[in-house]
Design goal:
With 193 residues, the chain is mostly beta strands. The strands form 4 sheets. Strands 5, 7, 8, 10, 13 and 15 form a 6-stranded antiparallel β-sheet that branches.
Length: 193
C-alpha cells in the first residue's frame, strides 16, 4: 500500500487448475523504485518476433525462438544493492523452460520458468545484487521458445543504514517466511483441498 506495507502470500496452481493460497504475511518496508524495461526495446541477438497482445505491457512483446540472447543494458544504480528482478513471461510453447542468466558478463544460476498454462502471462522473480553504476542483465537461450514482455527491477529508493528497530522487523519477516510448509519455498508439501 502507499504507507510501505506489503501483504505477501503465495498462490500455487497445479496443472489441473486446482489452487491453494498461503497465509498472508504483513511486512513494512522502505520506499522502493520500480524500473520496467520492455523486452521489445532490449538488444536481441538471434531468433525473435515482435508480436502484439492487448494483455502485454505497451501492447507488444517478444517471442524468442531458438539461439537467442536478450540484453537489458545501461541499468544504472547510484549504489550497489540487492534488487528484485521480475520477468513477465508467456510459456506459449509449454512449461518448464530453463534459460541462462548473466549479470555484467558473469554467469548467474539458471532461471526456471514455469506456468500453469500456455495462455497467461506469469512473473518469474529472483533477487540479484546489482553493482553501483551501469549494469547489463542478459538471458541466453538454453531451451529457448519463450515469450517475454518486460523485465522489472525493484530496488531501494535511497540507501540508509537501518536502525535496530528496522533490522529487527526485517529479521522477523524473514523468520515468518521460513514457516514450514511454506508454498513460497522450494521445499515442503502443499495440500490441495
Amino acid at each position: 500500500d502507499q504507507n510501505g506495507a506489503f501483504h505477501l502470500y503465495g498462490k500455487v496452481t497445479d496443472k489441473n487448475g486446482k489452487s491453494t493460497i498461503s497465509d498472508t504475511i504483513h511486512k513494512l518496508a522502505d520506499q522502493f523504485e520500480l524500473l520496467r524495461l520492455e523486452a521489445e526495446e532490449a538488444e536481441i541477438i538471434g531468433g525473435k518476433r515482435i508480436l502484439e497482445d492487448v494483455a502485454a505491457s505497451k501492447g507488444s512483446y517478444v517471442e524468442l525462438t531458438r539461439d537467442w540472447t536478450i540484453n537489458f543494458s545501461d541499468i544504472h544504480l547510484d549504489s550497489s544493492q540487492l534488487c528484485q528482478l521480475s520477468f513477465s513471461s508467456l510459456l506459449n510453447y509449454g512449461s518448464p523452460k530453463v534459460e541462462h542468466l548473466s549479470l555484467n558478463g558473469i554467469n548467474q544460476p539458471d532461471l526456471v520458468f514455469e506456468a500453469p498454462d500456455e495462455e497467461n502471462w506469469v512473473g518469474q522473480h529472483l533477487m540479484l545484487s546489482l553493482d553501483s553504476g551501469s549494469n547489463t542483465i542478459s538471458m541466453k537461450a538454453n531451451w529457448g521458445y519463450i515469450s517475454l514482455d518486460y523485465l522489472e527491477l525493484m530496488y531501494k529508493a535511497s540507501q540508509t543504514i537501518p536502525d535496530s528497530t528496522t533490522a529487527a522487523r526485517d529479521q522477523e519477516a524473514v523468520q515468518e517466511l521460513r514457516i514450514f510448509p511454506n508454498p513460497l519455498s522450494e521445499t515442503g508439501r502443499i495440500t490441495f483441498q
